[in-house]
Amino acid sequence: MKQLFIHIDKVTLRHKITILLALCLFASFQLSAQVRTSVDTTRIKIGGEVVYKIEVETDTTKQVVFPESQTFLPFEVIEFYNTDTVKKDDKFQLIKKYGLTSFDSGWYQIPRQKILINEQPFFSDSLYVYIQDVLVDTTKQKLFDIKPILEVQKPQKNWWPIIIIILSALAIIAFLIYWFVWRKKPLTEAERIAQLPPFERAKAELKNLENSRYLIEDKSKEYYSELTRIIRSFIDEKVYDKALESTTAQLIERLELLSEANEFSLKKEIITQIDTIFKRADLAKFAKQQPEMVIAEADLKETHFILDEVNKLLPEPSEEEKLLDEAYRKAQEQKAKRKKIVITSAIAIFLLIATIVGLGLKYGFVYIKDVVFQNSSLELLEGEWVDSEYGMPPISISTPQVLMRMDAPVPEELKEKMQVTSYGYELKDKFTIALVTTNLKEKVENFDLSTAVEGSLQTLEARGITDIITLNEMFKTPNGAEGLKTYGTLKVPKGSSNNFIDGKYVMLSFSAEDKVIQQIILVWGANDTYADDIADKIIKSIELQPKELQPKSE
What whole-number distance in Å separates Cα of residue 338 and Cα of residue 193? Predict the structure, then answer.
């Protein structure tokens, strides 16, 4: 008996020490961090605002994370106020406010909120607020019919800045092409002279030679080279078509033969003057002799006389020659125009290729191709997404399109046991999303989510989907709600034929209140890169109420 009392005393002592340590630990938490909650009023009208305040007092080394999502059901958060910080001695007092509202009358509880202090969870107290109904005197207030549903046009992207930039760039490029290629530029003196008839051209070139500084600078070689070129060019075009490639002796011999044969009756004195000027020019060019300036100037005057005499002997051009000249002129204009078209086309092609290569190097060539040919998956990924909530408790999710309510067939024998609500969206054979909420009429303790997954997989098989490979892992949403992630590959029937396409799927399953099963099912083509990105973006956007914050059913 004595031993028994001693044993009891030891056990009691051990329990006391344990309780004391627990109290000390709890006290240390209370001393290091205190959480208080309050509301500015306990009564509001429907749609009014109640300010819910969380105050945390902790030391300066602790990191505090307040709830930042819709965890206040049945209340809705209409505004997240900025966190206020007040320093008190060696501690901080952090104050976070939320603007809440509700549209149902009666007493409602603001559920406990989870605050993380250095990743240690603390829970606030739950508070009650009375939502007062607004009485309407129907004897004074007129009643009106329900307004019809109006079709709302989807807002279009603001393309104007992009269009203005593109048009401005095209205008600048067009102006540069016009200025440097198509603009009729003022002719230089050399170009103006080159367009003159042979006789007027030769006379103009002699005038320019007369005004040159060759003789003043003792450049006899250059002077006589230009002088003989003018004579040879004129004779080559009008008298003898090989004058430019003939030597002086050959040219004089040809002129004498033409004169003797009366084909071109050039006086012998003129031929002798041409011979004299050419021989003096040969001495200046090859023997480096420097004729006196008076002689050089006299040779230039003689050249004027020679050209006049030769021009007198030239017959008037026939109509056929005039037509040939006109045809030649038009051919030259067409040639110049074709050259401008080729240059313009080359510039346009170069700019197009450079733009494609530049955009391809920055964004990827496959992406550019998909943008040009309007890939439907890419348009879905880069379009305006919709943030919404579905089911109860609500699942917050971001999707490319609004999920539409769908009929979810339930067997007759199960209708009394459950209610199924389904929302979904499908993009042909490319992407399918379904959000299913199953409300059980009775609680199921420790419900196994794998059972719900198995039922959903059977539903997929009933739709003709085959070769389903399944992998499972735990999944946690950004706001901490935990569920089961089932994913893998499958084969999806294509159209009404027996053809199948490879696909991927992800199924996220959650349970709430031991009587609500929520599932998000995504199915898409395995070879569609953009569908992978769409699925990843959707999954990252999913948020649910953590279990400890969900309102408890009675």
Answer: 24
d(C-alpha 529, C-alpha 404), whole Å? 25
DSSP H helical ranges for 364-448: 365-372, 376-382
Nearest to 438 by CA among 460, 462, 457, 414: 414
Q: What distances in angstroms separate CA 255 from CA 201, 258, 402, one per listed residue?
A: 22, 5, 97
Phi-psi region of 252 (alpha: psi -120 to 50; beta: other; left: phi over 0): alpha
Cα angle 481, 483, 484; round to 5: 160
Q: DSSP string of 201-262? A: HHHHHHHHHHTSSTTTTT-HHHHHHHHHHHHHHHHHHHT-TTTTTS-HHHHHHHHHHHHHTT
Residues in the chain, overall count: 554
**Residue closest to 450 by CA, chosen among 441, 458, 440:** 458
pLDDT tens digits for 67-100?
Answer: 877 778 888 888 888 888 888 777 888 889 999 9
Q: pLDDT tens digits, residue range 445-461?
A: 666 778 778 888 888 88
Q: What backbone torsions phi and psi does residue 539 show, to the nearest 5 degrees?
A: -60, -40
pLDDT tens-digit readout, 31-62: 345 788 899 988 888 888 999 999 888 887 78
Mapped to the 3 state alphabet, what secondary structure does 108-167 carry? EEECCCEEEECCEEEECCCEEEEEECCCCCCCCCCCCCCCCCCCCCCCCCCCHHHHHHHH
Question: Could you tell me the pTM of the whole model?
Answer: 0.47
Q: What type of residue is 112?
A: R
User: CA distances (Å), 337 to each of 174, 344, 359, 379, in order?
Assistant: 17, 11, 33, 44
Q: Which residue, among 490, 480, 415, has the nearest Cα to 459 in the 3D structure?
A: 490
More confident residue, 430 or 301: 301
What's the sign of the alpha-carbon dihedral 307, 308, 311, 316? positive
- DSSP assignment letter at 186: P
Whole-number pLDDT of residue 14: 42
Report whether 255 contacts 243 (CB < 8 A). no
For the chain, give the longest Cα–Cα distance.
167
Is it the case that residue 26 has pLDDT exceeding 60?
no
pLDDT above 70 as % of the chain: 83
Q: Which of 529, 491, 488, 526 is nearest to 507 (CA)?
A: 488
Rounded distance between C-alpha atoms, residue 308 and residue 244, angstroms: 20
